[in-house]
Amino acid sequence: MKLLFVLELALVATVIEAAEHAFAAEPAERITVAGAQFMVGTNRIWINGANTPWHVWNEFGGDFDAAWWDNHFRKLHENGINATRVWISCNGETGINIDPSGHLLGCTPQFWTNVDSLLQIARTRRVYIDATLLSFDHFQRSHPNYMRWRRMLLNGETIDSMVTNYVVPFVARYKTNPWLWSVDLCNEPDWIHENEICGKMEWRPFQIYVAKAAAGVHANSPVLVTLGICMGPKYLGRPPGTNVFSDATLQALAHGDPGARLDFYTPHYYDWQKVIGGNPFYKSPSDYPMSLGKPIVIGECSVKGTAQHSIIADYEGAFNHGWQGVMGWTSDGVDRNGSLKELAPATRAIYAEHPDLVFPKTSSVNIANDGQ
Question: Which residues have C-beta within 8 Å of that of residue 204, sequence separation ≥ 6?
Fold first, then answer.
């Protein structure tokens, strides 16, 4: 009996070791940056993407429904969508512990269990995740603890607690899962800067957070870092000095740490922004006063299409004009901007024209004829 028990333990150890080797080998699927493009291994990938921001508000550490996410990710993949953007925390009221002084204490066990499930579903369904860790909603005076989040940005110690107890543990936990493509450090921080309801804070505290968080991510994982800016032409400008999140600006705030950088840019676009710089789907990134040299993805847009254009034309326009991807808002219809029903014709059209750029040869693909 004892010998049998020892043999069983040895078998378990062998299985665990094999699994660890499998995880170590999987980063061949990981998205990396080469100049102004994305790569998977030696093959280019174009982000034929979506936003699936939430199924239930604040669900990680709350009412997370793994079956819903699994079914939805299956539909995304079947419709040619290779990546989606998920809000891991919607406004910070669930799953994350932050004290009244703004010190972030860590995440709840249920939070981690739910995110574990999401990342396993992403691996199984082969959909890359851009995990959005914060939003301007955390700072908006529409929930009980908004001042805790504002105080988090007020000094280096509380910012360090955010990085040490949330950002770094997040990427360290999932660094061997290549389907965690990137982390978005905050959704639309422009509104924290511009809007009184969100605090109307100066850029510098938030820049310090971005610098420290990006450096922490790069020191502890191969996960890419971005920031979902609403008004890209306004805040990601060139020449150097006008981009409030340039490498030089962030690294100066992080004592020269080269890890204090964004790996790619994800500006958002809706028709009300046309007065800022026109419709980007029919312009090149070089037509904008935006910092170049890194991949630029249109990180949000209405899946109903822009004015006088279909969503199919918008996605094709972005591809033809040199943007490195589009992530329509949304795949699950959380607001009036539409759902997968409106988005799928565009993502399926891009897949039909450029299958190897959507699902490079290192990835499996199963596009159904009726996956909507």
Answer: none
40 falls within a domain: no
The domain spanning residue 262 has which CATH number?
3.20.20.80
- On whether residue 149 sits in a domain, the answer given is yes
Model pLDDT, residue 64: 98
In a domain, 282, yes or no: yes
Asked if residue 230 belongs to a domain, the reply is yes
* Residues 129-156: tens digit of each pLDDT: 999 999 999 999 999 999 999 999 999 9
The phi and psi torsions of 122 (rounded to 5 degrees) equal: -60, -40
pTM: 0.91
Classify the phi-psi angles of 197: left when phi > 0, otherwise alpha if psi is within -120 to 50, otherwise beta. Answer: alpha
- Tell me which amino acid residue 34 is: A
Please state, in angstroms and rounded to a whole number, the distance separating the CA atoms of residues 35 and 161. Answer: 33
E strand map for the chain = 31-34, 37-40, 43-45, 47-51, 83-87, 96-98, 104-107, 128-132, 180-187, 224-228, 325-329
Gyration radius of the chain over CA positions = 20
Domain containing 120 equals 52-358
Q: With both helix axes pointing from N to C terminus, report the angle between 311-320 and 340-353 in degrees, rounded to the nearest 10.
A: 40
- Please tell me what DSSP assigns to residue 117: H
CA distances from 332 to 148, 257, 289, 340, 341 (A): 30, 39, 33, 6, 9
- pLDDT of residue 365 exceeding 60, the answer is no
- The DSSP secondary-structure symbol of 332 reads B
Query: Mean of the pLDDT values across residues 172-199?
Result: 97
Nearest-angstrom CA–CA distance, 369 and 372 = 9
Q: Considering its fold, how many domains does the chain have in total? A: 1
Question: Contact 93/360 with Cβ under 8 angstroms?
Answer: no
Which DSSP helix (H) or strand (E) runs through 370? Answer: none
Residue 76 sits at φ, ψ, to 5 deg, of -60, -50
Confidence of residue 67 (pLDDT cuts 50, 70, 90): very high
What pLDDT, on a 0 to 100 scale, did the predictor assign at position 292? 84
Q: Report whether the peptide linkage leading into residue 239 is cis, meaning its omega lies within 30 degrees of zero.
A: yes
